[in-house]
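Workshop exercise sheet. Pairs work together: one partner reads the sequence aloud, the other fills in the structure field after running the prediction. Swap roles for the next sheet.
Pair: D.N. / O.F.
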Amino acid sequence: MTARFTPISRRTITGSIAAACAALALGGNALANTWPEKTVTLVVPYSAGGPTDVVARLLAVPMGQSLGQTVVVENTVGAGGTLAPARIARSKPDGYTIMIHHMGMATAPALYKKLPYDPLKDFEYIGQVLDVPMTLLSRKDFPANNFQELQDYVKKNQDKVSLANAGIGAVSQLCGMLFMHQLGVKLTTVPYKGAGPAMNDLMGGQVDLLCDQTTQTAPVIQDGKRVKVFGVTTPQRLSSMPNIPTLDEQGLKGFDVKVWHGMYAPKGTPRDVMAKLNTALNVAIKDENVKKRIAELSSDLVTPDKATPEGLRKHLAAEVARWDKVIKAAGVSAE
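Structure field:
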């Protein structure tokens, strides 16, 4: 017996394909409409209590309220802040694991010869968050009382002076390296596992100097009892602490280190999910409590045009190029 096949018209095939595509689209929209259905994890590359951690915890609450789910902050510490980006780059691109990171995303390619991720290729960009100036501090009983005295003392006693940082590859290390480079000195550097422990030892008198973000240093500067401050790292003085001169105006010409922060997701995270994450970020940076607390930390939340995927993408690319030149000129390396 010969089998008979009913011919299928091109119109029928085309209709079937269209129906299937429509079903997939509806399924995708349904997924986007229900996301998130569980807790979102916001990964921080540094220790609890440090500057980036402080910012993450401030943002987590209003972001969670916008998303309708809890946003949990999780610290993935190590390798100068490169473990967390490596983790995010390998994470499932479903929007449930995201990251906040500072300018270390831009400096890492120049600092590390074998970086396990590419900041410009392996992530989706949620948006910029804020800019944070840095300050140069010493223990309270350090012999110098102003920047000129600090320069003189350091140059004469460089083998006796210790300079703390938040870990190899951290921005505080970079700031300290540039400080030494411009003064032409080599101090004993003491890396810690985060800015919090470094600050604790500075206040305790175990180390001499530390260059760190105002999110960490502003409270101890303002109480005036536990550290000395020698200058801010931005070209202009801070409106919140106008009496503190810049390092630039005190002789370190061109010294400009401002720590910017951005938020990232794994490459391939669905566009609709990214849109929700961006909306949540913008809700957070407009939150009155967040604005108040960030101002108290002498920092600046970004304008809405920067809190966008494109704003972060362009800024990151420009910063990678900028710091590549600066780091190579200074001879700084994390390896």
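Discussion prompt: DSSP finds eleven helices and ten strands in the chain. What would you look at next?
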